[in-house]
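pls ignore typos typing on phone
adenosine-5'-triphosphate + seq
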Amino acid sequence: MMDILQLEGVSKHFGSLQVLREVTFSVPEGSIFGLIGKNGAGKTTLMKLVLGFLRADAGEIRVCGEPVRYGNARTNRLIGYLPDVPAFYGYMTPVEYLRFCGQIAGMPPARIREHSKELLELVGLGSVNRKIRGFSRGMKQRLGIAQALLGEPHLLICDEPTSALDPVGRKEILDILSLAGKQTAVLFSTHVLSDVERICDRIAVLDDGKIALQGPLEEIRGCHRQDAVRIQLFDAPPDGFFDLFRQMPFVSAVSAEEDTVTLRLADAKQDGANVLNFLLREQLPILKYEVLEPTLEDVFMEAVQ
Ligand SMILES: Nc1ncnc2c1ncn2[C@@H]1O[C@H](COP(=O)(O)OP(=O)(O)OP(=O)(O)O)[C@@H](O)[C@H]1O
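k done
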């Protein structure tokens, strides 16, 4: 699979502040890539480097195999960009705005008309003929995505597209990015882990300028799988009963609370069956049995500590 974006050993400082330290990762074709980091972690700086708006101190950035050149980034024809605070001409309607953007980019008028219509449908602004001035923040973000997709980019870059939106607006944006991801690779930054869990297939965690963790989301979860099970009984067992689990060799941790116990196991499948058998033998009916998935939050906290 071709890499749409490659960063290799990219570093950047401002004065005495080292913002990025030898950042290396790539975004393959067809990927929706979540760049996770706290405020100030360097996400915006990284995106500006990819767009050639800033000059890297070291390292190389390639878009579809072409090196990015500072100040003269021909590679930007391959990229659609949604900045964190997009600016629009408030007196235009969405259709007028996209026409204006298409004209600047030198697209043929028929193509602009046709493609604008599709894109405005995609972002849920197909029937909105009002001026942009009165748009909500979410509507502006959606129009921004339509604009970024107008040139049919190979890579769509969105800087914190969901921050400052309410849960409904946030879901709308994620759904749109998910759809856009069928046509183009997507790189978006966020500090919201649930956004990433919803739509990304790959992630990188940026912490203190370094990539603390990266890879396919499934793989990352797999590696950090805790193999824990939570069991709830119909009734609280006799005092101290759950402590019996501590003596079992395959149980590495026990936490108990009234009728519920959480066990860390070497292997959820095999050891889980042993635990269940034990409870049956002791004639303690089970209300609920659950294998716990590590949340991205757990994984993230482990990576950035
Ligand atoms: N032009 C600049 N000159 C000096 N310092 C800068 C400049 N641009 C960014 N910084 C600093 O670099 C650090 C990283 O900023 P950046 O905007 O890349 O972070 P971010 O992860 O995008 O954070 P946020 O989510 O707050 O936008 C911050 O400490 C910021 O103050």
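Residues 109-122 form the longest helix (14 residues). The radius of gyration is 24 Å. more later
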